[in-house]
Specification:
With 395 residues, this protein is α/β, with parallel strands linked by helices. It has two domains: 241 residues, Aspartate Aminotransferase, domain 2; 126 residues, Aspartate Aminotransferase, domain 1 (Alpha-Beta Complex). The chain has a seven-stranded mixed beta sheet, sandwiched between helices. It has a three-stranded antiparallel beta sheet with strand order 7-6-11, with no helix packed on it. Helix 7 links the parallel strand 4 and strand 5. Helix 2 crosses helix 9, helix 3 packs parallel to helix 9 and helix 10 runs parallel beside helix 13. The longest helix has 21 residues. InterPro entries: DegT/StrS_aminotransferase, PyrdxlP-dep_Trfase, PyrdxlP-dep_Trfase_major, PyrdxlP-dep_Trfase_small. This is DegT/DnrJ/EryC1/StrS family aminotransferase.
């Protein structure tokens, strides 16, 4: 569609996210899976969850997948499973969703923040190395928006200081580093299946992913009140005992039923997201006020980006978001306040100006609508509205 035609067309709302068409396409399989769950009569932590764990593990090349109640729970359980103890420090980026740091606290540790790189929005390996102390137990890179953190450099830092590498790969399904899936480059990682994610459920759900059986068995016990429920090779003599204080974070079989159906079109959804991202980049090229469109960093090894979010850096970010909202276009701000300045971490003693790249990202980044259901014409309209805002031409 020509840009002028896009502006002349009736103003159809463009939500930040919807999966109505996707659900319609997979619903026959989802409905069959749900009917099986109902017929079996076990709705949580049951057969469908186990099936999903096995199918997903094969899909991403993980030895183990442990389905849990949310991506946040997965982070807490993973940190507990690697043996995080009170007083242990975990180095995390200052620019991420709150769960990346709050999970460390919930697991009994202390987050230590580090600045990010300007292009990948992930923790800067040199900054991570500078943040390591004698109390550091793990580095936790977060793979945000469309590409992986620099896992090669971060693995070298982890090896140098003999600390664990734990990946917050909640957004990173489908992303790979030199052929290996995100979350499998250290002790383990996580996936979130929050509805907006590349593979999204109808509510909260998540998973711990790892190649370490002991970590997987521990996470599996922790999700079910610390009950192992059966004798495990890595925990000899334990059968149906509660040996660790755990949580109630079992995945619902209803969510697993939907996720299994949606897995069948994951490749197509990832390809559609890439297509939409290319369209955004082409249409926003040279747009005044748009400081940066996504930059895919060359790591020197094959990597597989996946566009979970299309993030731009812009001038007058909040005014642009209000302009788009007035024209029926939804956006999201990732993230308006950096983690080190969040009130819940005030006692850690960080101050404004300490992590300038993260703070600049918080001031200028805006996510535009991007999901498989998004029509091409909607991308045209969003981009023309952005351009009109900065050129002063009302739509």
């Amino acid at each position: 569609m020509e840009h002028a035609a896009a502006l002349a067309a009736p103003a159809v709302p463009v939500p930040f996210f919807t999966q109505a068409a996707t659900l319609e396409a997979v619903w026959p399989q989802a409905e069959a899976n749900l009917a099986e769950v109902i017929a079996r009569g076990k709705y949580s932590h049951g057969h469908m969850v186990e099936r999903f764990e096995h199918v997903l593990a094969e899909r991403i090349g993980a030895a183990r997948v442990v389905g849990v109640g949310s991506g946040t729970d997965a982070l807490v359980l993973l940190l507990r499973a690697i043996g995080l103890e009170p007083g242990d420090e975990v180095v995390v980026p200052a620019f991420s969703f709150i769960a990346s740091a709050s999970s460390v606290v919930l697991a009994g540790g202390r987050p230590v923040f580090a600045d990010i790189g300007p292009d990948d929005y992930a923790i800067d390996p040199d900054a991570a190395a500078d943040a390591v102390t004698d109390l550091t137990r793990a580095l936790m890179p977060v793979h945000l928006f469309s590409q992986l953190a620099d896992l090669g450099a971060l693995a070298e830092v982890a090896d140098r200081y003999a600390v664990s590498l734990v990946e917050d790969s909640a957004e990173a399904i489908g992303m790979r580093w030199d052929g290996r899936h995100a979350g499998l480059h250290g002790s383990g990682g996580v996936l979130s299946f929050f509805p907006t994610k590349t593979l999204g459920a109808l509510g909260d759900a998540g998973a711990v992913i790892t190649d370490d059986d002991r970590i997987a068995d521990t996470a599996a016990a922790l999700r079910h009140h610390g009950r192992f429920g059966r004798t495990l090779a890595h925990f000899p003599g334990i059968a149906n005992e509660t040996v660790l204080p755990g949580f109630n974070s079992k995945m619902d079989d209803f969510q697993a039923a939907v996720l299994l159906a949606k897995l069948t079109r994951l490749d197509a959804d990832i390809a559609r997201r890439a297509e939409l991202a290319r369209a955004y980049t082409e249409r926003l090229a040279g747009c005044p006020g748009v400081r940066k469109t996504p930059v895919l960093v060359d790591r020197g090894v094959p990597t597989d980006p996946v566009f979970y979010v299309y993030l731009v850096e812009v001038e007058r970010r909040d005014a642009l978001a209000a302009h788009l909202a007035a024209h029926g276009v939804g956006t999201e701000t990732y993230y308006p306040v950096p983690l080190h300045l969040q009130p819940c971490f005030a006692d850690l003693g960080y101050r404004a100006g300490q992590f300038p790249v993260a703070e600049a990202a918080c001031a200028h980044t805006l996510a535009l609508p991007l999901y498989p259901d998004l029509p091409d014409a909607a991308v045209d309209r969003v981009c023309e509205l952005v351009r009109a805002f900065y050129t002063g031409n009302p739509t």
